[in-house]
Amino acid sequence: MATYKKNLMAFGTTFIVILSACNHSTGTSASAPADSDTTKNAPVETEAPNSDYKPAFAGQTRGPSAKTTTPFSVTLVNSVLKRPWGIALLPDGRFLISQKEEGTLRLVTADGKSDKTITGLPAVVADGQGGLLDVIADPDFAYNRVVFWDYSERTADGLLVLAVAKGKLSDDETKIENPTVIYRATPAYKGSIQFGSRIVFDKEGNLFVSTGERSDPEIRIQAQQLNSALGKIVHITKDGKPVPNGPFAHTSDARPEVYALGLRSPEGLAWNPTTGELWEAEFGPRGGDEINIIRPGKNYGWPVITYGIEYSGKKVGDAIQVKGGMEQPIYYWDPVIAPSGITFYDSDVIPEWKGNLFIANLKTMHIDRLVIKDDKVVGEERLLTDLHHRFRAITQGKDGALYTVTDEGQLYKIAKK
Ligand SMILES: [Ca+2]
Question: How far, in Å, from the CA of 354 to the mean position of ligand 1?
Answer without folding.
Answer: 26
